[in-house]
Amino acid sequence: VQLQASGGGLVQAGDSLRLSCAASGRTFSDRGMGWFRQAPGKEREFVAGISWSADNTIYYADFVRGRFTISRDNAKKTLSLQMNSLKPDDTAVYYCAASKGPTAPRDATWYAAWGQGTLVTVSS
């Protein structure tokens, strides 16, 4: 599966952004999907994940819970991340990723395909 992330930009604290990730290739609907981010000088970290299952189990990092919402549209092969109440600490390059299987682990080593990243900058 190939992934293309988009939707980043420069916003002010408190604003919202919606990131999208378009997938191509045969497999998408049987893979867990995740969003990760990497801030300057920091390691890549898990943001949110959504499994491939009947109930689309969702996981969030504690620092985005209640502000970000992950969703997927298997028919359109798209993954989205709605980000509300953005903070300067949310500034990072955001990556979408496809898991090696149906789950969406927090560990990045369980992901087999990565998008190119989209930059989100939140000014104070």
Number of helical runs?
0
Which blocks of ≥5 consecutive residues have pLDDT under 50?
A: none
Please report the distance between the alpha carbons of the first and last residues: 37 Å
Query: What is the helix/strand order?
Result: EEEEEEEEEEE
The biggest beta sheet is recorded as:
7 strands, mixed
Radius of gyration using CA atoms only:
13 Å
Helix fraction by DSSP (H/I, runs of at least 4) = under 10%
What do these coordinates show?
With 124 residues, the chain is mainly beta. The strands form two sheets. Strands 2, 4, 5, 6, 9, 10 and 11 form a seven-stranded mixed beta sheet that branches. A four-stranded antiparallel beta sheet has the order 1-3-8-7, with no helix packed on it. A hairpin with a 7-residue loop joins strand 5 and strand 6. The radius of gyration is 13 Å and the shape is globular. It starts with a strand and ends with a strand. The model has no long low-confidence stretch (mean pLDDT 94).
Question: TL;DR of this structure?
Answer:
The protein is an all-beta fold. It has strands spanning 2-6, 9-12, 17-24, 33-38, 45-50, 58-60, 68-73, 78-83, 92-99, 111-114, 118-123.
Topology:
Blueprint: E1 2-6, E2 9-12, E3 17-24, E4 33-38, E5 45-50, E6 58-60, E7 68-73, E8 78-83, E9 92-99, E10 111-114, E11 118-123
Parallel strand pairs: 2-11
Antiparallel strand pairs: 1-3, 3-8, 4-5, 4-9, 5-6, 7-8, 9-10, 9-11
